[in-house]
Write a structure and sequence with these properties.
Elements lengths: L16 H7 L8 H26 L3 H10 L3 H15 L6 H23 L9 H14 L1 H4 L4 H14 L8 E4 L3 E4 L28 H14 L1 H4 L13 H8 L1 H27 L1
Antiparallel strand pairs: 1-2
Helix pairs in contact: 2-3, 2-4, 2-11, 2-12, 4-9, 5-6, 6-9, 8-9
Length: 279
């Protein structure tokens, strides 16, 4: 759009600040609460990966202790991040395009991780891989999803998420600790079904988020996100509360891509200094 100017005339309503405020185009208001929750999840992820690097790659006992201590919490902040990503899909112009770009980036991450740490700790199918496919599928199925009532779709996705939670770990389908059935063993004998949640014996991925169950949590967020698209979130969610987390949430992808090299660099620096002090 071009830029144009109107000579100020106090007799014209166009010149008043009230009119200018009302004449601003109103798009979808930013839901800062989502940024803040996403940012908090990224904050937790950075520290978790730091403990992983310190404990696994540098063999420092205190890092391993912290890793084991915080590991039970990892699915919760990762799940919150995935759910919010599903909500945000209702605010995106093109989920297919966005997902395709992220898919390309995710395999750059795979390549870089292979070069950096080798096959023993390569990221074969991490959270970026999973999210990219979820975004593309959500874009493809948008018209179908719109035929399903919001709360019915949300509840269905939550049920599917619960039923598939143990598929990749315990090889069972059902409600954890209450009822389950074994998944056919042959599904875990191939080397190409791991993206779905069927890793074969010996499968290694230092970051692993299979489509089952996480796809269903993403889609649950997608159904819930219709409320966001209708601008019906509570009023407080549109206001900033913690600017630091809000900023981290807005730049989550950049932080994800850069935090591991920074952590490695810091650890190598500390290792170098300590080794020279001891000598």
């Amino acid at each position: 759009m071009g830029t144009y100017f109107i000579k100020e005339d106090k007799t014209m309503p166009e010149a008043t600040s009230e009119y200018k405020e009302k004449s601003k185009p109103k798009g979808k208001p930013r839901i800062h609460l989502l940024d803040e929750i996403r940012g908090f999840c990224v904050f937790c992820m950075v520290f978790y990966h730091a403990f992983y690097t310190i404990g696994i790659f540098f063999n420092w006992s205190w890092g391993m202790w912290l890793l084991n201590f915080f590991t039970p919490a990892e699915p919760f902040f990762a799940g919150a991040f995935i759910f919010i990503s599903g909500i945000s899909s209702n605010l995106s112009h093109s989920n297919i395009e966005r997902g395709a770009k992220l898919f390309f980036i995710s395999y750059i991450v795979t390549f870089v991780s292979f070069i950096a740490v080798g096959n023993s700790a390569v990221i074969r199918f991490g959270i970026l891989h999973m999210l990219s496919i979820c975004m593309m599928l959500y874009g493809i199925l948008t018209k179908v999803n719109k035929l399903i009532p919001l709360w019915l779709g949300f509840l269905l996705e939550v049920v599917l998420f619960v039923l598939t939670m143990d598929i990749s770990i315990k090889h069972t389908f059902g409600i954890p600790y209450l009822w389950n059935v074994s998944v056919p063993a042959w599904l875990y004998t191939t080397d190409f079904l791991y993206p779905l949640g069927f890793p074969q014996a010996g499968f290694i991925s230092s970051d692993y988020f299979p489509l089952m169950p996480w796809l269903f949590l993403f889609f649950a967020g997608g159904f819930f996100g219709r409320i966001a698209a209708q601008k019906k979130f509570p009023k407080f969610s549109y206001k900033k509360h913690i600017p630091f987390f809000s900023l981290m949430g807005r730049y989550a992808l950049i932080i994800y891509l850069l935090h591991q090299p920074v952590i490695f660099g810091i650890c190598e620096g500390v290792k170098f200094v300590v080794s020279h002090i001891n000598h």
